[in-house]
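Exam revision sheet. Question 4 asks you to relate a sequence to its structure. Input first:
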Amino acid sequence: MGVQELGHLVLYVRDVERSAAFYRDVLGWRQIIPEPGQKPSPVAAFSGGRTHHELLLIEVGADAQPIPAGRRVGMYHFGLRVGDTDDELRTMLRRVEAAESPVLGMSDHGVTHSLYIADPDGNEVELYVDVAGVDWRADPSLVAAPVRPLHL
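Answer key, structure tokens:
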């Protein structure tokens, strides 16, 4: 027995309504808690349909310690597959730019094309698409291919 999949991610956020709006309205993730029309809650949950929830946000308030800048121990980023084509990734880039969310970078990883952004609390999020025709399951070494710049 061992790990079979990453089930969910939980983030502490300063303002759950602000962060929920980002993940729901900018990134297009389906919010399941609270449901539309329910009273505001100190938590928000999102699901893409794979499991009961993939992301849970917990409000800790405006006076919470920020994420420290620079090299540190802890999470670097988490990745969200946003489609199957570069056109879909370009659409996400336009949505992120329209929301004035920080774009931190873009990379061609060989197996994925990735856009790196920051959420309202400074958590780094990788938005990516798998590159068509690249079979990393047959050749896992492709996952360690050199990173190249990506131009969307």
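Marking note for examiners. The first strand starts at residue 9 and ends at 13.
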